[in-house]
Amino acid sequence: MLQQPYFKPAFIYLCTILCILSASASPISSSSDNIYKLDSSASISLLTCDPGNEMYSTFGHSAFFIKDTVTKVDRVYNYGTFSYDDDFLYKFITGDLDYFLSISNLEGFMWEYEMDNRGVTQQILHLNQSEKEKLYQLLEENYLPENRVYHYDFLFDNCSTRLRDILEKATGKNIEYDFSFITKNAQAKNQSYRNMIDECAGHLKWLTFGMDLMIGVPSDKIATPREHLFLPNNLMTAYFFASTNNGNRPSPLVANTKTILHFDAKKEATPFFQSPLFVFSLFFLLVLFITFYEFKKEKWLKAFDIGFSLLFSLIGCLFVFMWTSTRHHVAYVNLNLLWANPFVIIGCILFFTKKYRLISWFALVYCVMSLCLLLSWRWLLPQDFNIAMMPLFLTLTLRSGYIFYYSRNKLKRHHRHG
Fold it and tell me: What is the pTM of this model?
């Protein structure tokens, strides 16, 4: 749902900025209502942009377009822009990246999507004159320097929810949604935010895995039908079925729908043999072979598990940081901390010693924990885990189980020789 990408070549950023600057009007004073007048022939449309194959474009995008040939208004209102500065990466990680409303003409807006081979659908909205002018006024007031910047929230305050809310305000909440496309769909009505995210990004297996790893319990909340509209495609569908009621009989909210930019949708899916599930399954088989070798030789390759412990403790530090030190609310209460947390470093330190009693207790606790995660999976815990975690949990259970077995044998031998 990001209008501007993270990893675009510099010339695309430059051209996009030039398009915006050349097409954007100066902020308009609200001192006179006449400046918000539109001709009766003016149209207001929802533009819905197809998802792309890059990470930044996976969820699509939405914008409002106002066209008035009489007053020469040709403006696309885009809530998905941000400043790419030296602090971008830090702000993005900590959740302090502010977005802002930008304005371009239709040609400038469409240029980027044509470059990316992404289609754009236009829904011309059926609004009365006062609703059109009210929406125009609200958008222009939002564009004032003191109003245009907002704190972006992927689920609750983004390019789609902003359009949904401002149109409801302009129409006096006179929009009647028909959410049957959600409520009568057995799968859709029980979807959580995580489910919807995975559905959109499911073809990019590593992206899905990474997002499932970083987001916590808040993303597993079952979304209400209205909350489904944080996704641009859901907003477009909701508008298609919605109606307005101005005292007469209800009228469809969408007067006309047309495709103004078409490309065959080609989702470049991650091949299975490159997916996290396949890679972690191979890793499990490798660890199984190593563990069998250790068992036959009555050895313990400590370096292997020291590396494991160090890695998981660092990942746990990242989970804690995302929970306690960022504004990413969906990263709070991440139950992946059960297997990857800063305290795993204790195991890393113990493995350098010969304190086999302590090692055995640590390994037992970790083995029970990973086994419980494996058995409870998605049925008992309030957070879903990515399917690729299954072979990883198997690996953790296997290694901690073997460390417990080896350390207990060491203790028995020590007692026999003592």
Answer: 0.84
